[in-house]
Design goal:
DNA-binding, 199 residues, homodimer
DNA sequence: GTCTATATAAAGATAGAC
DNA sequence: GTCTATCTTTATATAGAC
């Protein structure tokens, strides 16, 4: 377990590697890419990557930590821009739509979560934190909406937080797997679910 | 693209390999297991596997075809045992619970779907068929329920078929990734969703 | 149907020069 | 920070004996 840099201290070269690695994971998973794949895309040689990230686990840990941090920033942004719970939930669904929309990329943590048994323990731990954070945030928002009378009071906030998160993560998996057979992206499915939650 | 045996013609030895391969994929994904892993579990040597399945793509194609076939059988069984749409949907959710419940295994096609860009084309095609079949079946059941007045008529059957399928697939991914942080399995989440669909 | 032996290539990683 | 060269291990696969 080598000590790795914090994502805030990355040089431009290292940041580029993290960018490319993230995209490759979102497409093919942890075991679906290699340092060689990154090297090809970035235009350097394989061993140069080890200078920045000694091991693959180091690299992916930083990728995941940065992803998590950016997601937290996005949640804060939503809180700053939307006052009411239903709108906050819709904006949340939009985050998943943006990830998926561009190139049918999966949520990084969705992908790594599916592979949980086949990734380094450090990575699996970051991924677990990602989901705990998201579930807590969604639960809080739903409870807030119930207090403010914008969401139905009869539903269990925790259950419906999970329902929304799972539907969004699942929409990306099923969407890319089913190809053109599916026409609803995460946003549309999320909106349908959120609609049924409204007071 | 070598011609491979049909899953109905497997010898007991070959069937055992398919069993083990399926479990390994459900835990670690296509790129998360090797012939060596299978050999270790089954108790034979690696090259013996090639006698039954020349390539990894051959093996996984058969695994997926058999999985798909069994799933179709399960859908037929539900149709034979449950007359009403809400009960059919609950029985459907139960299928996912059984897969996930035992050892936190993912749906085979959920896993392979997530990895779609990193698996052989033959496999990706089987997976696509799996999701098309499931979406069509769920849509039909929901429409039937709407005609029979057991499910709400205002909802879009196609959208809610996707919603249920995505929530169930997502529940497995999120559940294993979040660890003990999640307490609702696929069945509980599915039941909550189906409840909101009832007329 | 399974084995040993072997081939080939890829993946992850290190050493040391520039 | 990047390179060439090299090492080690693993993955996938083949050949041929039992």
């Amino acid at each position: 377990m080598s000590e790795s840099k914090h994502f805030s201290e990355l040089t431009p070269a290292a940041e580029r590697l993290v960018d490319v690695a993230q995209g490759l994971i979102q497409r093919g998973g942890y075991n679906g890419f290699s340092y060689e794949d990154i090297a090809r895309v970035v235009g350097i040689k394989k061993p140069s990557i080890h200078h920045h990230f000694p091991t693959k686990a180091d690299l992916v840990t930083v990728v995941t930590q940065r992803y998590m941090h950016r997601f937290r920033e996005a949640l804060l942004r939503i809180e700053g821009q939307q006052a009411r719970a239903p709108e906050r939930l819709l904006a949340y669904a939009e985050l998943f739509e943006q990830t998926y929309g561009a190139q049918r990329q999966l949520c990084l943590c969705g992908m790594l979560g599916a592979e949980a048994d086949a990734v380094p323990a450090e990575v699996a731990q970051e991924v677990q934190q990602f989901f705990k954070t998201n579930l807590q945030w969604l639960t809080d928002v739903i409870e807030q909406g119930q207090r403010q009378n914008s969401l139905r009071k009869e539903v269990d906030a925790r259950v419906h937080a999970q329902l929304l998160l799972c539907a969004l993560e699942g929409a990306m998996v099923v969407g890319r797997a089913a190809g053109s057979a599916i026409h609803q992206g995460p946003q549309a499915l999320g909106a349908a679910l959120i609609h049924s939650l409204r007071a």
